[in-house]
């Protein structure tokens, strides 16, 4: 699939718009249109239903070590600044960036790729801010321009190896920046904190500085004791939250894949330390299977365990659920969700202060005077089992998913172009369709009168009003019925109901399946139950 076709459809059919577009847009921020807001809301609701409200607290799921409970939270975007100091974000939540002294542009160090190119007895490292085949094409174009060669002399360019990341280059003096015309214009990499800073209250001084949260997890940890005391939950149990997070990305890109404002669907699952590895394996499998169940092709998904050098300093193990997004190079995958075994790091940090790894464990980080660098809350966040009376600090398994990335993945997977015969024209035409799972489709059904006469519009409106309290349904009587079908195909509506002459005789309607194009007749009285059954059995 060509990504520009999906981007065009998202704009044309009201899924996604550039934020503040009439003022030129704001990079890294996106607005969800009428169709997009329904799609994203349905994905979040499916996640919440499957993981939280629909979960059987008394039952044991396949491969689960034991029954477990699930509850939810909705916490504030701005937390006490000490939260981010004790969690490590204040000191360590950063990426490395490089600046171009010639163009004044800024890039993330690990997102620039390039190749060594030699021509006219000179060897330079030519870079691109793109990836994959697009990066290779840009490198060739830039190299030709740099060496003052016409395209027909591209065979005079000698490449030393394939694309590599700028992080592998030590000397920038022979590097041609992504938008530069001269060598050596990139600065040395330096840290860039990703948290958005703000101020609380009217004074606006440093004493009132705060941050927009870069993740939803920490608010769950600081409410751990509140949940235990108010909900009578017993380990093992999970706390789920859906909410906005903010990261001041250096170079947001790839449509909504990397944005500065995004929404997360996170679970912090608290379990006994002796059982934590079993729960880690359980949540890896459970979350992977959910994406397949919701319509992502298994051959475009992978579950990748992090290498030791990739792990965060607190992690006892992390696996990413990754999807082969079409904007990535062939064979590359992008992260959809991370499942992290965080051990007892977070609850201990918010009790004792900022922790750093020391040997096989953690110790409170000290300042130059030997005092805790950042003090914790001092609150005892240990857990006491109400049945066994055992006290311990639970281990945490964290499945952390991006609602926006999930939405993008489902759109990429659903976008389909297929040829269908047109008997009237005697030739085939291309049908564009979003084959979204019915549970997450923005509209569940559309109702049409075949023609706008003979009482058909009135009957169609009656059926629309019958369905509307149960599903998000659309009524359309504009244009030829074939054109109306195509419009619904493009927004992913799984079922279309058409009122025709026979409806007025026997009170039946045709129901058309979006994917098979098969049409069957059902009675009007059966419409609600028929659509509900189709959605539930999809």
Mean pLDDT: 94
Count of strand segments: 29
Structural class: alpha+beta
Low-confidence stretches: none
Q: Helicity, in percent?
A: 25-40%
Q: What value does the Rg take, in angstroms?
A: 27 Å
CA-to-CA gap between the ends? 24 Å
Strand count, sense and barrel status of the largest sheet are: 7 strands, mixed
- Name the shape in a single word: globular
The portion of residues forming beta strands comes to: 25-35%
Tally the helices: what do you get? 14
Strand order of the largest sheet: 3-13-14-22-17-16-15
What key attributes describe this structure?
538 residues, alpha+beta, seven-stranded mixed β-sheet, five-stranded mixed β-sheet, 29 strands, 28% helix, globular
Question: How are the SSEs ordered, and which strands pair?
Answer:
Elements: H1 3-12, E1 16-18, E2 30-32, H2 34-53, E3 69-72, H3 81-87, H4 89-92, E4 94-99, E5 106-108, E6 113-119, E7 122-128, H5 132-146, E8 158-165, E9 175-176, E10 190-193, E11 197-199, E12 209-211, H6 217-222, H7 224-231, E13 237-246, E14 261-271, H8 276-293, E15 301-305, E16 317-323, E17 334-343, H9 345-352, E18 355-358, E19 361-364, E20 383-384, E21 391-392, E22 395-402, H10 403-414, E23 415-422, E24 427-434, E25 445-449, H11 456-467, E26 473-475, H12 481-491, E27 495-499, H13 501-506, E28 508-513, E29 519-523, H14 527-537
Parallel strand pairs: 3-13, 7-9, 25-26, 25-27
Antiparallel strand pairs: 1-2, 4-5, 4-10, 6-7, 6-8, 11-12, 13-14, 14-22, 15-16, 16-17, 17-22, 18-19, 20-21, 23-24, 27-28, 28-29
Helix pairs in contact: 2-10
């Amino acid at each position: 699939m060509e990504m520009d076709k999906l981007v065009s459809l998202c704009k044309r059919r009201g899924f996604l718009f550039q934020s503040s577009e009439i003022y030129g847009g704001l990079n890294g921020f996106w607005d969800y249109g009428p169709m997009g807001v329904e799609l994203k809301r349905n994905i979040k609701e499916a996640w919440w239903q499957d993981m939280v409200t629909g979960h059987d607290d008394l039952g044991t799921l396949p491969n689960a070590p034991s029954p477990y409970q699930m509850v939810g939270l909705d916490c504030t975007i701005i937390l006490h600044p000490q939260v981010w100091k004790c969690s490590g974000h204040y000191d360590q939540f950063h990426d490395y960036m490089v600046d171009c002294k010639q163009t004044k542009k800024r890039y993330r160090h690990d997102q620039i790729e390039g190749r060594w190119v030699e021509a006219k007895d000179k060897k330079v490292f030519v870079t691109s801010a793109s990836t994959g085949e697009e990066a290779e094409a840009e490198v060739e174009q830039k190299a030709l321009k740099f060496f003052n060669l016409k395209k027909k002399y591209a065979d005079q360019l000698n490449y030393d190896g394939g694309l590599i990341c700028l992080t592998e280059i030590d000397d920038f003096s022979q590097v041609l920046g992504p938008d530069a015309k001269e060598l050596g214009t990139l600065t040395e990499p330096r840290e860039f904190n990703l948290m958005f800073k703000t101020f609380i209250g009217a004074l606006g001084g440093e004493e009132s500085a705060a941050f927009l949260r870069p993740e939803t997890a920490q608010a769950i940890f600081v409410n751990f004791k509140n949940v235990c005391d108010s909900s009578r939950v017993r380990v093992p149990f999970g706390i789920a939250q859906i909410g906005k997070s903010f990261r001041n990305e250096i170079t947001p890109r790839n449509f909504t894949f990397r944005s500065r404002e995004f929404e997360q669907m996170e679970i912090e699952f608290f379990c006994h330390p002796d059982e934590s590895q079993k729960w880690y394996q359980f949540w890896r499998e459970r979350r992977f299977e959910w994406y397949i169940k919701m319509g992502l092709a298994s051959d475009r998904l992978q579950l990748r365990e992090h290498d030791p050098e990739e792990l965060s300093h607190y992690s006892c193990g992390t696996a990413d659920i990754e999807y082969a997004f079409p904007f990535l190079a062939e064979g590359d995958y992008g992260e959809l969700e991370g499942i992290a075994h965080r051990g007892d790091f977070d609850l201990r940090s918010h009790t004792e202060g900022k922790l750093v790894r020391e040997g096989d464990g953690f110790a409170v980080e000290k300042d130059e005077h030997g005092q805790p660098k950042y003090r914790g809350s001092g609150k005892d966040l240990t857990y006491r089992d109400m049945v066994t009376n055992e006290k311990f600090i639970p281990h945490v398994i964290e499945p952390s998913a991006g609602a926006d990335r999930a939405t993008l993945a489902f759109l990429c997977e659903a976008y389909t172009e297929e040829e269908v015969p047109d008997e009237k024209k005697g030739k085939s035409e291309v049908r564009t369709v979003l084959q979204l799972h019915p549970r997450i489709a923005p509209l569940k059904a559309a109702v049409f009168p075949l023609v706008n006469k003979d009482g058909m519009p009135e009957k169609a409106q009656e059926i629309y009003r019958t369905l509307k309290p149960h599903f998000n349904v659309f009524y359309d009587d504009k244009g030829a019925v074939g054109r109306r079908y195509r419009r619904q195909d493009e927004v992913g509506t799984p079922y279309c109901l058409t009122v025709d002459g026979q409806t007025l005789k026997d009170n039946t309607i045709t129901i058309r399946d979006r994917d098979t194009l098969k049409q069957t007749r059902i009675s009007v009285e059966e419409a609600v139950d028929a659509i509900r059954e189709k959605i539930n059995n999809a």
